[in-house]
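Researcher: We're reviewing a set of sequences before deciding which ones to prioritize for further study. For each one, I'd like a predicted 3D structure that I can look through quickly. This is tRNA (guanosine(18)-2'-O)-methyltransferase TARBP1. If possible, include the structure in C-alpha cell form so it fits the rest of the review sheet.
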Amino acid sequence: MYTNTVEHRLKLRVCCSTILIIDLVSEDKVDACLETLFEITRKETVTSVRCYLEWSIVRLLCRFPDRLPLYYQRLSDTSHKPNYVISLLTLSFTLGQCLPESCVERYFDEIFVRLLPWLITNHFTIRLFAYCGWQHNWKACIKRGHGAMLENNRYLDSIGNFMETYVDCIKFFDKIQAQFYMARFDPIQDFNVEFIFRQMMTEFQVIDNEKIGSKAFVRVNPQRVERCPFENPERRSVYTAADPSELIGTEQPDAMVMIDTPSNQSSEDVYQKKIMPWEMMLETDMDLTKNLVKKNRRRNDLIVVASLIDRLPNLAGLCRTCEIFNASLLVVPTLKIKEDIGFTSVSVASERWMPMTEVPESEVAKFLKEKREEGYTICGLEQTTTSATLGEYMFPEKCVLLLGKEKQGVPADLLQMLDVTIEIPQYGITRSLNVHVSGAICIYEYTKQMQWRQQAAINQS
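Model: Here's the predicted structure for tRNA (guanosine(18)-2'-O)-methyltransferase TARBP1, in C-alpha cell form for your review sheet.
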C-alpha cells in the first residue's frame, strides 16, 4: 500500500476514529481489543497507520496496566518481522511516562530486561529503536523518582552511563530528537482533536486535504467534550516546533488583519495562501456528506471528453483542472484509474469531488451523438484548416470538449462529428502543447467567458 492512496487515507480515518473511542472499551473487552490491535499492527506496513495503532495500544495499557504481560510476551518473541518489532519497541517510548504510579516501578523492573536483547541484534533499525526505548525509559525512570533502582543494578547502570557518554550513542539520540513522534509525542497531552486529525498527519506528510483542523469540528458542534478536547494550548509551541508551517492559523481571530484591500496592503504583506479543502468546505456548507455538497454545487455545463488519452498524469491533471474550474463532467476511458497510484498522486483527491464517467474509446462516437441530441455543441481541440482561434471563438453554454490522443490528435472519424474545431494560437518553435495543458487552457477560456456573461447579465438587471 502506497502513502496517500485511497486505501491509506481510509485506514487513517478508521484509526482516527479508533483513537477517539478507545477509552470507552470496558474491562471485559480489553483483552480482545488488545489482541486485535496487536494483530493489525503486526500486518500493517505503513508507518503513519502503525503509529495510530500504537497510540491506541498505549492508551489501553495505561488504563489497564494489569494487561502489560500481553505486551511483554510479544516484546520477548524473537520470531516477529522487523517492522512489528519496531512497533513493539516504539510502545515503550511513552509507557514509562504515562503509566499510573501504582504500577510504574514494576514496569521499569520489566522493561529494561525486555529491551536489552534487542540492543545486540544485527538489524540496525531495531537496535536504534531499542536504544531509543532504553533512553526514554531511563529518563522517565529517573524523572519519576525511581533512579535508585537503576543505580542499585550495576549492569543497568553501566549500560545507561555508556549510552549517555559514548559519541555514537549521543549522535543517534540527537537525530532521534529531531523527530516529533519519537522524541516529544505524549499520548496523554496530545490526545485532542487538533493533534489526532491534523498535527499527527502533518508529522507523517499526509496530503493536506486529509487534515481537519479543530476549528472545523468547533463549527459543526461548538460544545466541548471533556474526554477529548478540541486542542491543547499548552502543547501548541511543541507542535509548531515540530513543523513551523503549522504556525499559520494559530493566531486568535481578533488578531487577524484583513489584507484583501489595496489600501492597507504593502508589498511585505503578500504571502502564499494555502487552501485547506475540508476547512473551506465547512465554511460554506454545514452538511459534510459528499453527495449533498455535490448536489448543492452549481456546475458549468461543460463536459470534457478525455477517453482518447491513456497517460495517467495527463488524466489526473485534467481531473484537477476540471474540478477547479467547475466542469460538470469528465469522461475517461475507465474509472479504474481512480485506484491507480499514478493517477491519485497527481490528482490529489480531486477525483473525490469531480463527477466522472467511463466511456471507452470505441464508444466515444455514440456518446458524442447522444450529447448532440441533448443540445450540446461538440467542440474539438485540433489544428485544422477551418479551426477557430481560441480567444476569438465564443463558447456556447452547453459544450462538449473533445481532446485528442497525445500524439495523433483527434481521429478522422471523430473529426467529422465535430461542430467546431478550436486551436490555440502558438508562437514558439515546437508548436506542440501537451494535451493536458491544451485542455486546461481551453477549460479556463470557457470558464472565463461564462463568468463574463453572468456578470453582464447581473449588470443589465
